[in-house]
Amino acid sequence: MSVRTKGRRKIIVGGQTYIWYVTLDDDTGDNALNIVSNDKYMILSCPLQTRKIPYVISKGRIFQTKRTNGLWNRYLLPFDIPDVITPKFVEKVIDWATQNTDAVSINANNVPV
Length: 113
What we know:
The chain is mainly beta. Helices cover 12% and strands 35% of the residues. A seven-stranded antiparallel beta sheet has the order 1-2-3-4-5-8-9. Strands 6-7 form a two-stranded antiparallel sheet.
């Protein structure tokens, strides 16, 4: 089953197609950037109102070239979240999530694990 694309933006990074969009998170009331690979192996959610400690939530099967445990895992972003989400920022997040191996895992309280 493919990723729904209506009303969402497409970006190609490293030959792989990703869909990205910003939605309102029902639990927190904050906006979140969502990035999904076309094959759904990489699924990321990045809360946008977390200015103190920027992080992403990995919900997919692969993160930074490694298989994941299938749970929602939080990782510190090594860069700040801009005020306006642009394709350049989305590409930066995808590059970091697919090519690097330096992610710092954190718990739900944003404390490194």
